[in-house]
Amino acid sequence: MQSQEKTLSKAIKEAIQFVKINKHYLLSHHLPKNYNRCLTIKGTKICSRCFGFYIGILVSVLAYGFIVNQPILLFTAIPGLIEWALYKIKKISVNSKFIAINGFLMGLTYSYFLFNFLNLQLTPLIITASISYLIIFLIVLKISKSQFSNI
């Protein structure tokens, strides 16, 4: 029993130390060289896209009855996907507020997928959109990784 308590205590101490060392990544997973893609709130860097994404999810939860019945929300992630692809492939960066708006729209799309998935309302349109987003995502990652391997 004492051995388990010591192990747990050690694990907690290690976790606290890890958080202390990496605290700047808790709200922004970007390296300092990419802080231009972050919002600064009270001196704290927050990933713009993630911030918008979570606000989009929050709005979706609050407006669940409206969100779940709006198939147009399948497509609100497209501007964010284009912006992300341009950044990954061409290193074209835009204003962090624009990225936050794209994140918000992506959060709406995510919520629409999630709500309909949880309600088992997987229409052919939802399945096609899901597969399309996945394919585009994988292609962009493949292209961006192959560019870096040539450097």
Structure, described:
- The protein has helices at 2-21, 48-62, 64-67, 78-90, 96-118, 124-149; strands at 38-41, 44-47.
- The longest helix has 26 residues, at 124-149.
- The mean pLDDT is 77.
- Helix 4 (78-90) packs across helix 5.
- It has 6 helices and 2 strands, in the order H-E-E-H-H-H-H-H.
- The protein has one domain (2-149).
- Strands 1-2 form a two-stranded antiparallel ribbon.
- It is globular and about 55 Å long.
- Helices cover 67% and strands 5% of the residues.
- The protein is mainly α and 151 residues long.
In short:
β1 and β2 form a beta hairpin. By secondary structure, this protein is mainly alpha-helical.
The low-confidence parts are none
Distance between the termini: 54 Å
Shape: globular
What is the number of strand segments?
Answer: 2
Helix share bin:
55-70%
> How big is the Rg?
19 Å
Overall number of structural domains: 1
Oligomer: single chain
Largest sheet: 2 strands, antiparallel
Give me the number of helical elements. Answer: 6
Structural class: mainly alpha
| Strands ordered across the widest β-sheet | 1-2
Order of helices and strands: HEEHHHHH
* Mean pLDDT rating: 77
Protein topology:
Layout lengths: L1 H20 L16 E4 L2 E4 H15 L1 H4 L10 H13 L5 H23 L5 H26 L2
Antiparallel strand pairs: 1-2
Helix pairs in contact: 2-5, 4-5, 4-6
Q: Tags for this entry?
A:
151 residues, mainly alpha, two-stranded antiparallel sheet, 6 helices, 2 strands, 5% strand
